[in-house]
Amino acid sequence: MLIDSHVHVFPKSFEESRNDLIKKDSTFREMYTNTKSTLSTSENLLHSMDVNNIDFSIITSIGWENYEIAKEANNYLLNSAKKHSDRLGAFVGINPNWGDLAIEEIKRCIDQGAIGIGEMHPDTQKFKLDDSKLLSPLMNLAKKNNLIILIHSSEPLGRKYPGKGKVEPKKILAFSKLFPENKIIAAHWGGGLPFYYLLKELKSSPPKLYFDTAATNLLYSKEIFEIIINIIGSDNILFGSDFPLVKQEKIITLVKDSKISKIAKSKLLGENAKQLLKISKI
Ligand SMILES: [Zn+2]
What we know:
By secondary structure, the chain is of the alpha/beta class. The protein has one domain (3-276): Metal-dependent hydrolases (TIM Barrel). The chain has 15 helices and eight strands. The chain has helices at 13-16, 18-24, 26-32, 42-51, 67-83, 100-111, 122-125, 132-144, 169-178, 187-190, 200-204, 216-219, 224-232, 248-257, 262-276, and strands at residues 3-8, 56-60, 88-92, 116-120, 148-151, 184-186, 210-212, 237-238. An eight-stranded parallel beta sheet has the order 1-2-3-4-5-6-7-8. The longest helix has 17 residues, at 67-83. Bound molecules: zinc ion.
């Protein structure tokens, strides 16, 4: 069983309106000003899933700043997931700074079948992960409706690249402590947070977090799989590619070729996501 928990798709029209979107939305501008960052539709994704025998993918939004664009993108994600309910699930784009409109949009998306919120980009959406007053209504609604939260995360060290921000391990850790009852996935290995589970205080009371492997090949050397599993175990790690930025097969190959156990491989590649996301269709 293969489940990719982190891919991005957009309406086909967004390719034509790309320059306009760059002007209007700060997150899109950060991620897609570089013309090498391609946009993909659900159909492109389904083709890639067929080729790679992937059973199910979570189509995620980006952390839109702009309400109108986010709504249009959300509709596309929700319709795609409805049309291919046996193969796709949708995480929608919400900006907490929209206030009441954010709550209204989450409720609308829940009615339309959303199973998560994200990928959130606090830097470009301009909110702070420790702003409990701003985030509590959203997080409470997510908890009540079993919506998973996906947060873009960045390494405190290393090279600069589009999207690299300041949502680093320290902030992810504080966020998980502020909302311990929410189910949170920290993307891109949480910016390296699992390495800090070697600290005595984290080892004895680990945060309630999941980590995905999105864009691993662009960020880390391949030993990361066995090293992090040695530290935190294999129950909380999900295979995510970051398609179309990274080809789905790239990460599958990294997992399959890694020195982790057969059981850990099947947990990462699908079982953990199936359980967390309550995917009953496969
Ligand atoms: Zn990301």
